[in-house]
Amino acid sequence: MIADVSKSDKIVVEKSTVPVKTAEAIEKILTHNSKGIKYQILSNPEFLAEGTAIQDLFNPDRVLIGGRENPEGQKAVQALKNVYAHWVPEERILTTNLWSAELSKLAANAFLAQRISSVNAMSALCEATGADVTQVSHAVGKDSRIGPKFLNTSVGFGGSCFQKDILNLVYICECNGLAEVAEYWKQVIKINDYQKSRFVNRVVSSMFNTVSNKKIAVLGFAFKKDTGDTRETPAIDVCKGLLGDKARLSIYDPQVTEDQIQRDLTMNKFDWDHPLHLQPMSPTTVKQVSVVWDAYEAVNGARGLCILTEWDEFKTLDYQRIYDNMQKPAFVFDGRNIIDAEKLREIGFIVYSIGKPLDDWLKDMPAVV
Q1: d(CA 221, CA 293)
Q2: Which of 48, 57, 143, 248 is the most buried (most CB within 10 A)?
Q3: Is the CB of residue 352 less than 8 Å from the CB of residue 362?
Q4: β-pairing, 350-353 with 331-334?
Q5: What architecture is the 103-186 domain classified under in CATH?
Q6: Which residue, among 29, 129, 32, 39, has the nearest Cα to 76 in the 3D structure?
Q7: CA 143 from centroid of its chain's CA atoms
Q8: Binding-site sequence positions
Q9: What is the full per-residue pLDDT of the chain (369 aa) written as tens digits?
Q10: Which amino acids are annotated catalytic?
Q11: Do domains 103-186 and 192-364 have the same CATH topology?
């Protein structure tokens, strides 16, 4: 389409996160349709995060521009660099060859996902030994070589990028005969799936080894706060896991619509390798799910409460009111470690916080392996 309408030489900038060598494919297509017009292809991956995209645009950690290492390519790189230089300090604008720019975006997302899977793996060990993952991650993050970011444990990572980009990296490694490297990055996703299945198993085992026909409130469905995005959200797998044991779910998220939640839970995605053996909801199972627009309505009459997104409003809910309206014993399963577990225990809740020392009730009912 670009070739069809171009009447003068063009710089084509690739922004999307794409498989390495996509720029080369674009280059070949345009060259074969050039009609005498010259094209330069640049890779300029974006590093904007959902919820902070405008801030990330105006004050980026770095801007990455990759181009051909010849005079024409470097001239194109400089042209794009001049655009960013209007608001980005020059030392933050990095230039590389095409392939390095494309691979750097995949590598950055893989490294971030790896940190989350690493701390989530530690959370399982913390629960087994009585350590507190918050204290461990704080101590680890004080090492200047490691740093504190992306060391918060959770029920798992989601979003449109991490799993897709790691699988992309795995594919590239396998295509280049690097089986061991591919297996290494696969493990990041395996740990993420394990964390979700571990959470579901903890919920089921804590509630007398069954949630069949029990109402479970789910607070949060988006993959992270301040977005309505549900792509690859861990809430999908957790909800499907609970529905697999015939739980009745009442779901509340301040930004995700009922239609979106129903679509996510009914999509045909089945994977025997997944530890939960997830299946899409059947028409019968759909009746076990209700989506409400109030947190207190979601928990009314529930036996258990699962916090799956770290929305700020969940930190300030009236948990005494929630406890009074739940069936007893009342359980809270905090998949984001955002509540004060001790205060909730004083109210009367049985609380499970990922990676935190288990209370006596949970010790008596070990998680299913």
Answers
A1: 12
A2: 248
A3: yes
A4: parallel
A5: Orthogonal Bundle (1.10)
A6: 39
A7: 25
A8: 17, 47-50, 105, 150-154, 158, 164, 224, 231
A9: 999 999 999 999 999 877 778 888 999 999 898 888 999 999 999 998 888 999 999 999 999 999 999 999 999 999 999 999 999 999 999 999 998 998 999 999 999 999 999 999 999 999 999 999 999 999 999 999 999 999 999 999 999 889 999 999 999 999 999 999 999 999 999 999 999 999 999 999 999 999 999 999 999 999 999 999 999 999 999 999 999 999 999 999 999 999 999 999 998 665 545 565 566 656 666 789 999 999 999 999 999 999 999 999 999 999 999 999 999 999 999 999 999 999 999 999 999 999 999 887 777 665 554
A10: 161
A11: no
Q: Which tokens sit at 114?
A: 């790896």
| Residue 167 burial (10 A CB sphere; 0-12, 13-18, 19+) | middle
Q: Which fold has domain 2-88?
A: Rossmann fold (3.40.50)
Which pairs from 20-29 meet CB under 8 Å and 24+ separation?
Answer: 20/99, 20/102, 20/103, 20/106, 20/172, 21/99, 21/102, 22/102, 23/66, 23/98, 23/102, 24/98, 29/3
CA-nearest of 294, 212, 211, 281 to 251 is: 294
CATH of domain 192-364: 3.40.50.720
Q: What is the pTM of this model?
A: 0.88
In this structure, what token pair is assigned to residue 297? 């309505």
H or E segment to which residue 237 belongs:
helix 234-244
Residue list, annotated binding site for substrate: 47-50, 105, 150-154, 158, 224
* Structural domain boundaries in the chain: 2-88, 103-186, 192-364
Amino acid (one-letter) located at 290: S
Which pair of tokens denotes residue 187? Answer: 């493990």
Helix pair 234-244, 258-266: axis angle to 10 deg: 70
Residue with the two structure tokens 């699962």 = 306
